[in-house]
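Side project, low priority. Logging it here so it doesn't get lost.
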Amino acid sequence: MCQGQFLIDVRAALVELEQVLGPEFSSLLPPIRFASPVGLRRDAPPGQENHPRYQREKNWAPGQSPFGSVSELLLMAEPGQLFRWISNDEPVELVLGAKDHRSAVEEPYPATAKPGETWHSRKSMTCVHDVMLHDEHVHQSTPMLTLTLCHRGSCEPDRQHTVMLGMIQRRQDPPAAPLTWYDRRIAVYESSPPYSMLSVSKKLTYRGETDSRYIWTGSMSYYTNHTEFPPPNHGFLDDEIWLGFGVNDAAAGWLDIRASELVADHYLCQGAPAEYRYYRQNSLA
């Protein structure tokens, strides 16, 4: 299951879907772009071709910028590493250079840390790793959504107050941890180049998660909000988001949450623009 990744339009995989939706809704959908499974792959850096992370890819996060081409498909392979899909026969293209992937949490972190005590990742060099206080591999967990930091109808989306966000997670297993569990966070990025990481949330937990029942998150999408069909990957603070999750790899569930709750209680990354700080703070009022 984790040996490779593929893109396919669900309408091609489940031909009954358009019949279930009916002709009225089906006519609003875009043409099928991926009619058969299309493999996703990236070129490994020189000398790392045999590294496990390039031999067994998993958990890439697709997304689109509202300020880019409607045909441009972006893929976040790891936090901060953004690629662009090119064609069926080519590997994905790195959007940014290695230095542009780097980010760091704003000091002091945690808030009680004294000057010079904030820990920073030396290997991964991202704000996510700083907040998690470790340098191990972190997986993307959900697709990327875009969010304008105002209530629907109260402003027009622009680059200053529209961001991309997605969930990331790190699985921990015994003996390194007393039980299997997921450390999950929301990471927020700029919605246009250079797509810098802006902030990282505190730990997210599900009510009912227990020592013997771990939960992992696999999808995040906007509900239709009774405004538009199909629901886009862009929304506003008062829109409803559905999180889809798995329980012990044996059952599935979902919950609904307001978009505003996913950008609350965040740690800021160094260099986060004043505009993001302003609009995010106002969104919490």
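Brief comment: The CA atoms of residues 47 and 54 lie 11 Å apart.
Revisit when time allows.
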